[in-house]
Structures are given as structure tokens and as C-alpha cells.
Amino acid sequence: MKNSKLTSFSLVILQFLFVGIIAFSGPVIPSKLMWALLFWSGIGLGIWAILTMKIGNFNIIPDVKNNGKMVISGPYRHIRHPMYSALLLSTLAEIGNAFSPLRLTMWMLLFIILLFKLHYEERLLFAHFPEYPAYAARTKRLFPFLI
Fold first, then answer.
1. What is the pLDDT of residue 59?
2. Is 138 part of a structural domain of the chain?
3. Using CA atoms, how far apart are residues 145 and 77, in angstroms rounded to an integer?
4. What is the chain's Cα-based Rg?
5. Sign (positive or negative) of CA dihedral 101, 103, 105, 108
6. What is the mean pLDDT of the chain?
7. Domain containing 51 — which CATH number?
8. What is the total count of domains within the chain?
9. Tens digit of pLDDT for each residue in 14-29?
């Protein structure tokens, strides 16, 4: 259990580190229309996911809450990790708006750490919810029709 918490917190800390570096190394809110649309789409998806998940069920670390409920409505009807998708979309928009090699590197590291985090989280979800395998078989992880 102790190792599980260490893994969970390490993944979250790295996630916030990479997002923070992206945010503090250039403008946060894109000024160019195309990137602003992508940014706000990501923010909207994230808000929709949190509202669908409900605050009491929401958990920033990838551990399953003992009283947690499996959510398969809203954006979760199509993708299993819409909050990760939202984060990737909004940070990609920040980079597209004000590109730098540092920001791109941080985004790629963020993408990698989120892949590790979602694989780790899914192992826990498969073990906790008997209906998760069927749900996983009919949905994509991050983006509908892609991955």
C-alpha cells in the first residue's frame, strides 16, 4: 500500500511539474484564434469531466476511492480519461500559440507521464470494478476513434 501511494503521488507531482513549466515559460491563454479554440475546448472538456465525475468521486491521484463509483456518462461515455485528454489539449494549445523547444519537451514528457499514469490507474480500475473490462473494450483511452 505504501508503494502504491508513493507511485500515485510521484505521477501527480511529475504531471504538475511539467504543466507548471509549460505555464510559466510562456503565455497561458492563447491569443491566436485556432489555439484559443483548442485551449478552451480542452478546458471545457475538463470541466465537463469533473462535473460528470462529481466532486466527491473526483480524485487527483490515480488511486480508486473505497467508496468510488464508476462513471460512464458524459465524456466518459466515449473516452476513459477525459481529464487527461483535456490537459493534453489545453497545454498543446499553449505550445502552439507560443512555441519553444522547452515547452514542446515538457509537453512530450507530460504525455509520457500521463500514459504511465493512465496505465497504472487502469490496473487499479480493472481490479476494483468488475464491469471495467467491458467498459474499456467499448471506449478509447484519450481521444475518440484514435487512442
1. 86
2. yes
3. 13
4. 16
5. negative
6. 94
7. 1.20.120.1630
8. 1
9. 999 999 999 999 999 9
Quote the domain boundaries for residue 132.
30-60+73-147
3-state SS, the chain, equals CHHHHHHHHHHHHHHHHHHHHHHHCCCCCCCCHHHHHHHHHHHHHHHHHHHHHCCCCCCCCCCCCCCCCCCCCHHHHCECCHHHHHHHHHHHHHHHHCCCHHHHHHHHHHHHHHHHHHHHHHHHHHHHCCCHHHHHHHCECCCCCCC
Residue 143 within any structural domain of the chain: yes
Residues in a beta bridge with 140:
79
32-38 own/partner pairs: CB under 8 Å, 24+ apart: 32/96, 32/97, 34/96, 35/93, 35/94, 35/96, 35/97, 36/93, 36/97, 38/89, 38/90, 38/92, 38/93, 38/96
Q: What is the pLDDT of residues 31-47, one digit of tens each?
A: 999 999 999 999 999 99
3 within domain boundaries? no
- DSSP, collapsed to helix, strand or coil, labels residue 140 as strand
